[in-house]
Amino acid sequence: MSVIYLLISISILIAIGFFIAFITAVKTGQYDDDYTPSVRMLFDDELLKSTKKENRVENNEEKELDI
Amino acid sequence: MDTQNCFHCGLNIVKAEEIIFDEKKFCCNGCKTVYEIFSLNDLTCYYDFEKSPGATPQDINGKYDFLDNESIVSKLLEFKENSTAIISLNIPHIHCSSCIWILENLQRLQKGISSSQVNFPEKKVRITYNPEEVSIKTIVYLLSSIGYEPYISLENYETGTSNVDRSLTYKLGVAFFCFGNIMLLSFPEYFEVKEYWLDQYRGFFRWLIFALALPSFFYSASGYYVSAFKSIRSKMLNIDIPIALGIVVMFVRSTFDIVMDYGSGFFDSLTGLIFFMLLGKMFQIKTYSFLSFERDFKSYFPIAITKINSDSLEESVPIYEVEKGDRLLIRNQELIPVDGILISEKAEIDYSFVTGEAIPITKKSGDKVFAGGKQIGKVIEMEVLHSVSQSYLTQLWSNDVFQKNVIQKHKTITDRISRYFTPILLLIAFSGFGYWIFIDANIAFNVFTAVLIVACPCALALTAPFTFGNVLRILGKQKFYLKNALVIEQLAKVDTIVFDKTGTITTNKKSNISYEGEILSDEYLLLIKNVLRASNHPLSRMLYDYLPILILPNKSANDAKKWRVDAFEEITGKGMEAHIFGHQIQIGSAAFVEKTEENKLQQTSVHIKINGVYCGKFIFNNQYRDGLASLFKNLSGNYQIKVLSGDNEGERATLEQLLPKGTELIFNQKPEQKLEFIKNLQDNGNNVMMVGDGLNDAGALAQSNVGISISENVNVFSPACDAILDANEFQKLNYFLKLSKNSITTIKMSFTLSLLYNVVGLAFAITGNLLPLVAAIIMPLSTITIVSFVTLMSSYYASKK
Which parts of the sequence belong to the HMA domain (chain B) (predicted)? Predict the structure, then answer.
């Protein structure tokens, strides 16, 4: 059997695989909210928090110096 | 630095009330408490994402007692099992990334919450919690204490989970899948390669294409067959008939071609056509998930209310169980859900949801109170006269306008065109067939199908969706939110505009205050301002904002701000009395300052008495929206304008002066009368646009051809309507109307363009030269030109002010 049958069958099968993935994604509601995830992924982990706090204290001190 | 903003909520801080905590400045105790809660739980990251993102928590004492009632709670829950429950709460305050962050970290604040997920566009948070460890009431209290008070209304009571219709997305997915793969497999055909090995596989490729076209033909395009069938049955020729005809003929002819080995068929064009048309449909749907266009009184009314039983026990009961003769307890800021008689001595009721009037009305014991008002002040008791569905306001919803599901009020512009298009198309197809049949039966058959295929009005069908979709987005950016694309067509046809008065052409945010009486010295004004600060009455707040901060010559500004009020007493429904700096100051109603007033027209005023001497009164006039006069002047050129008001004629003179001549003013209109008024106009052949705001306009909004609701806060309050307009954009109304007219012009131009393509295609078809390749080129080419043409044109019109 010629290889072209095999190759095209495989390509169609892969395409169908992606198609099924798309349908399940829609079905589970992943496309219902297309904004929140984009914000959520930018949140830092809590571990970074302590250093951040220090930064902010520094900022405040600078502000006070300005005045 | 003079202006300081609160670290939590960003409001200006009044110097005398400033609270400094943890080196941060707060405007009030509420904001400070929220900060404390966050810093205790290591959640101060909240303030890093956005500057001062918070809201001051409101006093909600007792407001959510109904959440103790199991049967009510179970109606609200989305899911419940032994140790897991899920609830979706609507939180109007959600507005920035800080909000998302804090609400998704709720589990740090409260044990028992396992996770929470924010849906930002819908302003909802979905909380999964363990009902054995934490009650829903605790969660609601927690949310309120951090300034995210959920909005729970009667609407939540009836709908558990709503089913989202995703079929269009599926159809589009299927169509794209088929289209893409068929395109790839069609390439050998396009290039007509005559090599041996491609010839050998031709059959395989063609049958594969055929198989791939099946889902698109049977599933994705199914909507067109149904619509075409319906339209034939109702004898209304819509655009879906030639589309469905084209698709079916294309499929049959292509199948025939493949079976007889005549050629490759038109499956590439077929699936492409289906895909592009579905894409247009998708583009036309622009939903604003945080808005609701279907609101009736249910979204305003609370779920439950406190009932006083015969043994004077308080109990939360669902609103629908309230019966005539029940005694109800209404707390501060609670909505009165039914008509009744006031039992308590006095009450202040704010009817702004209903009429748009911001200034509360005072009611005495024995007075009738109507459903829809918001109680302000101390707890009151009332006796029920009618159940919810029979109340004065809610009766409006039993009118026919709200009963029928109005699906198609009018013919769309595309359908009007297709009424001519379809017969002409069939005529051409048959005359082509009739001509060729005498020459060659085979060619005749080809020509007949080719005409139907090439004339399939893909570009025509795409014109309106893409134009309207684009205009819908442009308007949305300018805070004019339309329910759907049909509204644009309706807007373009409007010839009569009816405005509600209070809350629509007037604003309830500001009031035009004038003073009548003896001239007050600067010192007195300052004293009054200081006294007013202690009061929460809406009139006091308005007057406080109105009075300027005066600087006395012999005192510094800082001194002046710190003047303390010595004794202060506020009597609900009357006024307030205070001692400050050795002066006795009384502010309140005419009766309170013992002033007999000649009662001419109803007027809202606050009287001032200092040291026992009557000074004068501040009069609150309606403040008309900015740009009202010029808007009306512009509109009056093209439209008939009418103003409908539920109020008395007190403002007639002012309005007549402000508005252009010929504007009809009608006063004293009840909600049903407003509806009738619109109906009469329509019976006289007018296309009426109603602009309103309160629940009392709901009938008129539903009856009118286009109902626009003006809203100061688009997230929360607006009655059912076709479009919601942000109150700040009110003066742009004329521009919006013009834009909608121009978009119709755009569509007409684009129709001409797409008809040209049809003529070119038909020229190929009628001469029997339509090759699959030609069809495959014409179809996407016309689609792309049409889509870019309408997008450019509508954007151009939008930028033209």
Answer: 85-151
Contact B302, B156 (CB under 8 A): no
In sequence order, what DSSP letters do the residues of B169-225 get, joined into one string? HHHHHHHHHHHHHHHHHHHHHHHT---HHHHHHHHHHHHHHHHHHHHIIIIITHHHH
Question: Chain A residues with CB inside 8 Å of B115's CB?
Answer: none
- Bridge partners for B708 per DSSP: B691, B723
Q: What is the DSSP letter of B660?
A: P
Q: How far apart are CA A15 and CA B105, in angstroms?
A: 39
Q: What are the chain B neighbours of A32 within 8 Å (beta carbons)?
A: 119, 164
SS3 assignment, position B664: strand
B457-483 tens-digit pLDDT: 777 788 888 888 888 888 888 888 888
CATH of domain B301-334+338-390: 2.70.150.10
The answer to whether residue A48 scores a pLDDT higher than 50 is no
Cβ–Cβ of B44/A53 closer than 8 Å? yes
Which chain B residues contact residue A31 at CB under 8 A?
A: 166, 169
Dist. CA B162–CA B289, nearest whole Å:
13
The dihedral through the CA atoms of B241, B247, B251, B257 has a sign that is positive
B567 DSSP β-pair partners: B579
CB-CB neighbours of B423 under 10 Å = 11
Look at strands B664-666 and B640-644 and give their pairing: parallel
CA separation for the pair B603, B606 (Å, rounded): 10
Name the residue among A12, A44, A46 with its Cβ closest to that of B181.
A12
Please tell me the distance from the alpha carbon of residue B140 to that of residue A4, in angstroms, as a whole number.
63
Which one, of B287, B241, B639, lies nearest residue B485 by Cα?
B287
Question: CA B675 to CA B704: how far, in whole Å?
Answer: 8
Which residues are paired to B576 by β-bridges? B570, B587
B479-506+625-740 is a CATH 3.40.50.720 domain = no
Facing residues of B412 across strands? none
Taking the C-alpha atoms of residue B361 and residue B370, their distance in angstroms, rounded to an integer, is 12
Neighbours of B583 (CB within 10 A): 15
- Which two structure tokens, joined as six digits, stand for B475? 């308007």
pLDDT digits (tens, 9 = 90+) for B262-314: 777 888 888 988 998 898 888 887 766 666 666 666 666 777 777 887 777 77
Calpha distance B241→B536 (Å, rounded): 63
Q: For residue B493, what are the contacts with CB-CB under 8 A and spacing of at least 6?
A: B687, B705
Edge-first strand order for the sheet with B361-364 is B361-364, B346-350, B374-376
With contact defined as beta carbons under 8 Å apart, do B238 and B224 qualify? Answer: no
Assigned token pair, B444: 């005749």
CATH number of B65-152: 3.30.70.100
Q: Mean of the per-residue pLDDT values for chain B?
A: 78
- A27 to chain B: nearest residue by CA? B166
Interface test with B, best of A40, A45, A50 (most B CBs within 10 A): A40
Domain ranges within chain B, ordered by starting residue:
65-152, 301-334+338-390, 479-506+625-740
B310-369: per-residue pLDDT in tens? 777 777 777 777 778 888 888 777 778 788 888 887 777 877 777 766 677 778 788 888
Query: Cβ of A35 and B120 within 8 Å?
Result: yes
For the cut 80, the answer to whether the pLDDT of residue B575 exceeds it is: no
Three-state secondary structure string covering B367-385: CEECCCCEEECCCEEEEEC
Alpha helices in B512-606 (DSSP H): 522-533, 538-546, 557-561
Inspect the interface and report whether the beta carbons of A32 and B119 lie closer than 8 Å: yes
| 3-state DSSP assignment of residue B703 | helix
Strand partners, B569: B577
User: Is B76 a residue whose pLDDT tops 90?
Assistant: no
pLDDT above 80 (res B638): yes
Distance from CA of B119 to the nearest CA of A (A): 6
